[in-house]
Structures are given as structure tokens and as C-alpha cells.
Structure prediction request, 868 residues.
Amino acid sequence: MKFHKEHLIEICIPVIAVILALIVGSIFIALSGKGIFNSYSALLIGAFGSKASLAETLVKTVPLIFCGLSVAFAFRCGVFNIGAEGQLLIAGVAVACVGYAIKLPAIIHIPLCFLVAIIAGGLWGGLAGYLKARFGAHEVITTIMLNFIALKFTEFLVNGPLREPSGVSPKTPHILESAELLRIIGRLNISIFIALIVTGIIYYLLNRTTAGYEVRAVGFNPLAAEYGGINVAKNVVLAMFISGALAGLAGCCEVLGVFRYFMPDISSDYGFQGIAVALLARNHPIGVLLSALLFGSLSNGATKMQVIAKTPKQIASIIQGLVIMFVAADMLVRYFLPKKKKE
Amino acid sequence: MKVVEMMGITKEFPGIKANENVSFHLNKGEILALVGENGAGKSTLMNILYGLYQPESGEIYIQEKPVVIKDPNTAISLGIGMVHQHFMLIPPLTVTENIILGSEPVDGGIFINIDKASRKVKDISEQYGLKIDPFARIESISVGMQQRVEILKTLYRGAEILILDEPTAVLTPQEIKELFTIMRVLIEKGKSIIIITHKLDEVKEISDRIVVLRHGKIMGEALTSEVSTSQIASMMVGRDVVFRIKKETIEPGEVVLDVHNVTACDDRGLPALQGITFNVRAGEIVGIAGVDGNGQTELVEAITGLRSVKSGKISLKGKEITNLPPRKIIETGLGHIPEDRHKRGLVLNFSVAENFVLMEYYKSPFAKWINLSYRAINDFAQKLIGRFDVRTPGKETLVRSLSGGNQQKIIIAREIVRNPNILIASQPTRGLDVGAIEFVQENLLEQRRNGKAILLVSLELEEIMNLSDRILVIYEGSIVGEVSGEEATRDKIGIMMTGVKGEEEKGEKCVGAETVLPFVQNDEL
Prediction:
């Protein structure tokens, strides 16, 4: 594909948004009475300063990649999936069950867990898609409600039937060893590679397949898609299924790789941060990788920043919010781009 | 006296000079026609005069005094009134309520004196022969009368100079006559009028003087009586234009599309089609004429599977297609040029190439298993771009960035190369310039020569009459009459468009009475 000027602008906007967010963020650091340079360097060291901190940054990045892809994929079909959080939790608890209860060799056990996650998350997302396609129920409302249901339902499960009998805190029992994902450094495990592969698959699916053509056509102009003979309702349900499955994979990797048990706290709002990740990535799969890394490093670096520079770690959240604000207000960012020359 | 004079107006939009050093004037008591193709800069120029845009350079004189028109309120206070193509009226409110909106006469600072306003509305209506009932609700009066309400609104605000933007586009031939009568009354009473249009016969009929714009520049200016329509047309387009379309006689073949007693609802769930029956045969063009909003959209959608049919039967080449999914119908051999190319016809954020395969992306050679073959798609696009002369920087350019004419070419190319048994063309030339219109019409005739059936739905009576072998007139969801292409006259079709059955022969005078009647009733209210 040829490289057009419009593509360059598409890339520039998120980059400028991040720079602007860091600049405005420094005002807040100054207000907290700390050094701007010290804080930002502590943030960087916290995120990338050592093997261990880099590993932990990637641990935070993996679920953000999946959730970012989830939201972005639905977006490309014109559906706003706010329910990644709920889809992640439902898949997580399902995976914890399969990982604990069924004895299988690892070579079958792990793929089975992934399949369960895809189905559980996919159905939870697909339900919202079906409600939209069949009854016209707005997905923003239904996915938010499904989030509450998923959260409360899984809370109930880990406090009741699925609670580890000897455990102090409410969580499911440790999964079997055959279901565990191989760890590399610290909690970082091979799910990072799975995330990269899935990103590639989603990119290919969207841009190189007939299914992707349909999804994009529906997302850009459902009336024209319908006119072209594309089944809009089917695509909405399918996109929400895939979107839910992607969020489900986040839950799966958290359970199998990072925690090895399930409790609702395995997600630090990854499903919601996924919306921000997708927004910053402008719904492009490759962009999702980069913006997930940015958000992952911000949240991991923040702790270190608080320890070293004594800068409140909430600053990182403020910067995240600012990034989103500047991306959403892209007209403002375009103002900083060089003006089109008059012909 | 020159009531308006614009000198050296230049207005730029990103990438385009909409107006370049435009100068013209309007004399008191004259009707000036501003003509030009779509995109020539007519509307931009008038929006500058009305204060909606600010020019980069140039001067404006009103009543021979220099002015700066910074917003429409300034324009109104200078005695300029504009009637937009799309009316700015609130349907549930009455005529008076709409007219006083924004300048309500108030008693004691808070109470609207509606009686006083109504009297004034009635006075103005009588003075100019507008025949408007001040208490009628906008939603219950005809489009023609709504337009007169817009005119009255400008007069209420003291307009001396009226700008009418494409006023005849939404009117029936009879309503157009009414409008012209009113315009003449306005001139008699000392008003001055600028009318924007691209319909040349109307220009000849109503205007005193014309100014021709092309590519944002003044191409010429003349007294209407001294130029012929073909001279005006070549000034607009920059070359000679053939008006008469050569149409050879073809004996129509078998029935291709058969619509039998079809009913359907509109988006609000109200009946839009009330038992429509007709057929289209191979090698003929059947035109559907009618005033906008009489079921044309719903009819096309019902046939193409985009709207559910409540009762009745539609068959294509003998195969029933009633309520089949759109793709099944397309595969039976149906091509469709939708009435709104942005809303339906194109995915604007797709490339030219991707839009070319909107109906066929899932078939070989464009699809291989689950994959798209971009090589095949691009080759196909390259071929069509050449064959249909689509002016685009490349096949990967987003369709959004092309001109309307080229966007329409993409749709027509896509629908024609699939070689459908029936082609449904809904307003295929809407918003296109003369050159593009020729292209579209020539392609429709080419399909006819190839023995294809064509259903043409258009609001342009001229187009229907030029192209159709048979003309059906639709009114409130029913076919109210049929005439053959040779027998068709504007008046004949015009009468039927107002709901009078074709079988009842009515003379010219009766028509007048027919259309005037409702206003008389309103006066008595």
C-alpha cells in the first residue's frame, strides 16, 4: 500500500497528543511541588530501568493489547464495546474453572483454556451484539450493564461455590500446572508472544479478508453495506463476538500466566483502559501495540515515580486522561500540525 | 439604481477558489438569474451576500453604500432576504409562529402578541398575492406554500432584495408557474430578486438578465432576451452542449421486472406504497415521475430488498424476489443506482477500488477462500477507471475526496459492468453538472440498446421525458397515470403529479383552478 499524506497525519495526531499530555502533565507535577525532570525520569526508570521493571511493564501491556484490540475491532464495525471488562472477567472465571478442574496434558490443556476463553468472552460480547441486531438495544447501555452483571456474578462465585477452601482472600484455587503459561522473567510469560500473534491476525482479518471487508463496510456506512448485500445484523453480532473473544483472551492470559487463579481484581480496569488504548491507536491494530505499551509503562512507572521522586502516582492517571483528551480533541492537535500550503 | 453591487469578491476554501474576483450588480426592480453548473460558486457568492461567509477580498455595496455584512442579521437589517433550497421551518408550528421566530412582537417584555403578528402576516400575504393562511401549521401545507411562507418571512423582516436559491427544485410544474407569478408581483412592487438556478428554460422565462459563473469566475453577463438557451449552456459548460438525446426505436421484449399490488410502509410506519402495479420489459426505459416524497424512495427500496414489502409480489425474470435479502436479489440480476450516493451508494472511507467491488468482493476473482485478492480488485478498478473515465488520483484514493460526478461514475460503472437484467436508476443525475449528466444518460441508453430493462426514478421531469419509453406518475404511493414517452408533455404529467388521475382529461384552465383552490379556502378560514 502506498503511503499517503493522510496516513502521516493519522500517525502524528496520537504522537502530538502524547507530547501535549506530558507537557500539561508537568504542570500538575509542578503543582504537587516536585521536580518535573526528576519525576519523568523516575517514571522512565520505573517502566524500563531494569529487566524486572521492563518485564512488569510488559505484564501490564499484554491485557491492554487484548482489550485495546477488542474495543478497536468493535469500533471498526461501528459498535462501541464498553463491555471488555465484563467479557474479560467472565472468560477469566471460566478459564480458572477449566484450568483447575480438568486434568489434561499441557499441550491440550492450554489450548482448551484459550478456546474456553474465546467462547465465554465471545458469547458475553456477542449477547450485546445480538440484542443490538435483533432489538435495536444500544450496545453502550447493554455492555455497561453486562459489566455489572459479570463483576457481581464473578464476585459471588469466588466468595461462594468457587472459593478456594483454605484461602484467606476470596479467590479460586490455583490452576493445575498443566494449564500454566511458561514464565520468562518475573510474572512476564509467553502471553506477550500470543498477544503479538493475535495482533497480526486481527490486522490481517480486518484488511485482507472478505470478513474484514464486511466489518469495515458496516462500520463506515451500514446503509451502503446493506445496499451492497452485506448482512449488517450478522456482522454486528460477529464483531461483538470477536471483540468479546479478544477481551476474553486478556482474562485467559491473566489467569494462566500472571495470577494462576481467578479473582475479580485480576483486571486493574484493563477493559476500560482498553477503550483509551483503542482511541489513542485510532483503532489500528499496530497502533494498539504501541499505545498499550505506553499505557502499560505509565501505570507501571508510576509506582516507581512515587517511590523515587515522591511524586504522587496519580499523576500517571492524569497523563493518561490528558492523552485521551487530546486524541479526542484532534482538531486541537491538528492546529499544531504544519498548515496545508495554499496551491 | 444598483441595489446590490459586489466587486472583486474572492473566497477560498481549503484547496479550492470558490469565487475568484467576482463582480456583478443587481438593478432595482429586476430579476437577475445567477446560473452555472454545480460547484460553480453560485451558492457561495450568495452566502457571502447574506453574511454566512466572509470573503477574502472584495467590496459589497448595498443601495450604493459600502457595507460589511458580518452575519445574516446584518444582511436582514440591510434589507436582504434569502430563501434557502432547504426550508428553515419548524413543521409543528403555525405559519405566523414560524415567521416571527427570532423577532417576536412582545407586549410588556414577555408576552408574544400573536394577533398583531398574524394581522401583519395576512396583510403582507394579500399585498403580494401569496395566499397564505397565517394560522395553518407548516406540516399540513404543501411544499409550494411552505416556500411562499419562506418568502413572506423575508418580506416580514423588511427585505427589499430577495435571494432565491434553486427555488424550483422542489416544485411541481404548476407550482413553478405560481412562483413565477408571485415573483412578477414582487418586482412590480419594487423589490429586486436574484434567482440561483441551473434550469435554463426557467431562466429564459423569468429573468431579465443573467450572470454566468464557471469555476468561481464570471463567464459572461447578458440580457436574457438577447441570448438563447444553448448560448447560456455553452457559457456554463465552456463548450457546446447537445440537448436532444438520440433515442432509436427498440421493440420491447419480455417482462423483466413485474411489480404486482405492492404495499409498504415508510420509516415512521405509515403506509407509503398503496398497491403499486407495473412492469418493465427488456429494452425499455420506464420512468417514474412524481413530486418528491410520494413513495419513490420506498418503491425502489422495496424492489431492491432494502425495505420489507407488506403485501404484493415482485418478480424478476419470472423469479419471485419479494422480501428476499438484498444479496439474493442482486444475484438474480439487479443493478441499482441509489438516489443518495453518499448515504447508500458508496462507502466514502473506502478506496475507489474497494467501492468498485461492493457487490462482488466475496466472489472469484476478488476473493480467494477467506482472502481478498487485492491484485484482482486493483486490476478491475484500473480497467473501470479507464473505461468510464473516472477522474481520480489513483485507485487507492478514498472516494470521499472525489467530486460528485466522479463518485456517480463509480456507482454507474459498478452497476453496469455486472450486466444486470434490470437497472434501477434513482435520481441518477442529481447534483451533477451538465457534462456528467450527459455521461449518465448516455450510459442508460446504452443499457437500453443492449436489451436491458431500466426503471428510472427522477424528480427532473425533463430527464424522465427525454429518456423514458413509458412514464408512470406516482402520487401518495399509488400509480395515478401512465403516458407513453412520445405523448408526454410537461402539463400532462404535471397535472397527474398533483394527484389528478390521468384518465380524466383536463384543460389548462382547470389546472389553474385545481391548484389555486386550496388557497381560496385558506383565505376564508
